[in-house]
Amino acid sequence: MASIRTTFTLDEELARRAKKLGVNVSEAAREGVAGAVRAALARSDREAYRKHPEHPDSFWREAEAWGEQ
User: Fold this and answer.
1) Residues 63 and 53: beta-carbon distance below 8 Å
2) What pTM value is reported for the model?
3) Strand, coil or helix: what is 2?
4) Do residues 28 and 18 touch, judged by C-beta distance below 8 A?
5) Mean pLDDT of 49-66
6) Strands of 1-69, DSSP E
7) Cβ atoms of residues 32 and 25 within 8 Å
8) Ramachandran angles phi, psi of 33, nearest 5°
9) What range does the domain containing 40 cover?
10) Is the four-CA dihedral 56, 62, 63, 68 of positive or negative sign?
11) Which residues make Cβ contacts (< 8 Å) with residue 25, sequence separation at least 6?
12) In this structure, is residue 69 part of a structural domain?
């Protein structure tokens, strides 16, 4: 997977504690961004489903019945 460089600001005390505890800040940032993206996608999917819910479709009922014969 290709990567890009980015810069962000981190609270000084948090950075100090991370360093003291041996936290890999880059890895933690990647995990945090990945989690935020997953959460945003889930919200987007739920909102799209709320706006356009699925409805029963006779085509699939007939296709399922055909497969059982």
Assistant:
1) no
2) 0.68
3) coil
4) yes
5) 80
6) none
7) no
8) -65, -40
9) 12-53
10) positive
11) 10, 15, 18
12) no
Mean pLDDT of the chain: 90
Is there a contact between 60 and 45 (Cβ–Cβ < 8 Å)? no
Q: How many CA atoms lie within 13 A of 7 on its CB side?
A: 0
3-state secondary structure of 22: coil
Beta-carbon contacts of residue 23 (< 8 Å; ≥ 6 apart): 17
Spatial CB neighbours of 29, under 8 Å, sequence gap ≥ 6:
8
Q: Is residue 2 part of a domain?
A: no
Q: Answer whether residue 68 is part of any domain.
A: no
Predicted pLDDT of residue 65: 65
- Tell me how many domains the chain contains: 1
Please state the separation of Cα 31 from the chain's center in Å: 11
Cα–Cα distance between 11 and 37 in angstroms, integer? 22
Residue 63 is assigned to a structural domain of this protein: no
